[in-house]
Amino acid sequence: MTPATIRLAVVDDHILFRKGLRALISGFPGMEVLFEAGDGEELLHRLDQGDLPEVILMDLQMPNLDGLQTVRLLRAQYPRIRVIIISMHDEPELIESLKMEGAHGYLLKNASPEEVRGAIVGAAATYESRSTMTA
Amino acid sequence: MTNWLVPVLLATPVLLLLALGIVAFVLRYQRRLLRQQEQLRQVRETAQQQALEAALLAQEDERRRIAADLHDGVGTTLAIVKLHLSTLGHPALTEEASSLLDQAITEVRRISRNLLPAALQKFGLPFALDALARTVPADGPTRLHLEQRGQPRRLDPHYELIVYRVVQELLGNGLRHAHADKIDIIVDFGPDMLSLHYTDNGIGFDTSKIDQQPLVGARTGHGITNLRSRVAVLQGTLRYQSEPGAGSQAWISLPVPYITAFQTPALLTYLL
């Protein structure tokens, strides 16, 4: 069975950005923010406790465990979870290599609400097809 | 007759010995003086090299700090403001403010990238040089052709930063001052030598005026001083040729193994 709402986690060390993103996402129909985390370590801790979202929106530069390291760990430990990187960096090489490392989407921090929604829906779609395939 | 000859015969060898002694002493003294002068010169050179390195390190450190503050601080705050505007739910009212915020964010990104290119740290020199070349618009007044020859590869990160700065400086000077419509930069990654060759067809400059100001820190208006000190830190050589109205050329060669083999580890860990 595929869930009707897309469950998300927001990971960023800037609390205000996290809250803003959460407020934005809560306004989209069919989406729910499961939890927020301040860095990759906190995220993995929450995941290990069993709080499993379908899509993670994550910053690149974070203390303790940064975005790139977390993407690598997620790919190994939670390959079903879709990861969208949301960052200030717009270098095409960086975006390309993050996708190679296992990120499923890339958003700039000044993306429009439609772009954010589109990226989440796009990533969630690949999650569902993967889960029905493996089911 | 023999009476006065005896002391002369006795005194002559003594005087000779004395003269020889004096000559030997002077020679030894001079040799020591030369050695001391040489030592002093070496100490001065080392001190100058260290001062250069320290100044360069401080500058890069400052740049990194400003870039991070701008990018992660100001940029993120602007993004948060934009996010809050869009959650207000009145797109028609906030559209103009949002696009202004986008402009500000783009500008912050551009400035911080100039200060510290993220591509350089993550993907290395060849990548970053291509990215730098792409920042020059293809339909602008100056066309840039940047070619990488030999075996483009990653070098020591700190070496990469300095080489990147050298190319940035060459390119920046060309774009700002040369009024050229064509700039060519060739970066040749040799086995143990990295060579740069810069050519433009711009207005050129009077090299004798540049040569009159060899002091580090002096403003020459062409950034040659900046170039020279960066090249000096890597113990490379810089040669340039220009004439008013006849374009400019610069050749720089940097010994690649210098940094990896001899550079102090303190410098290496400090810069990145």
What does this protein look like?
- The complex is a heterodimer of chains A (135) and B (272).
- Chain A is built from five helices and five strands.
- Chain A has 135 residues and is α/β, with parallel strands linked by helices.
- Chain A has one domain: 3-Layer(aba) Sandwich (Rossmann fold).
- In chain B, strands 1-2-3-5-4 form a five-stranded mixed β-sheet.
- Chain B folds into two domains: 115 residues, no CATH class; 155 residues, Histidine kinase-like ATPase, C-terminal domain (Heat Shock Protein 90), CATH 3.30.565.10.
- The C terminus of chain B is likely disordered.
- The chains are: A alpha/beta (135), B alpha+beta (272).
- Chains A and B meet through α1 and α4 of A and α1, α2 and α3 of B.
List keywords for this structure.
heterodimer; A: 135 residues; alpha/beta; Rossmann fold; five-stranded parallel sheet; 48% helix; 20% strand; B: 272 residues; alpha+beta; Heat Shock Protein 90; 2 domains; five-stranded mixed sheet; 9 helices; 5 strands; 65% helix; elongated; disordered C terminus
Secondary-structure blueprint:
The complex is a heterodimer of chains A (135) and B (272).
Chain A: E1 6-11, H1 15-27, E2 31-37, H2 40-48, E3 55-58, H3 67-77, E4 82-87, H4 92-101, E5 105-108, H5 113-134
Parallel strand pairs in A: 1-2, 1-3, 3-4, 4-5
Chain B: H1 2-87, H2 91-115, H3 118-123, H4 125-134, E1 143-150, H5 157-178, E2 182-189, E3 193-200, H6 207-211, H7 224-233, E4 237-242, E5 248-255, H8 256-262, H9 265-271
Parallel strand pairs in B: 1-2
Antiparallel strand pairs in B: 2-3, 3-5, 4-5
Helix pairs in contact in B: 1-2, 1-7, 4-5, 5-7
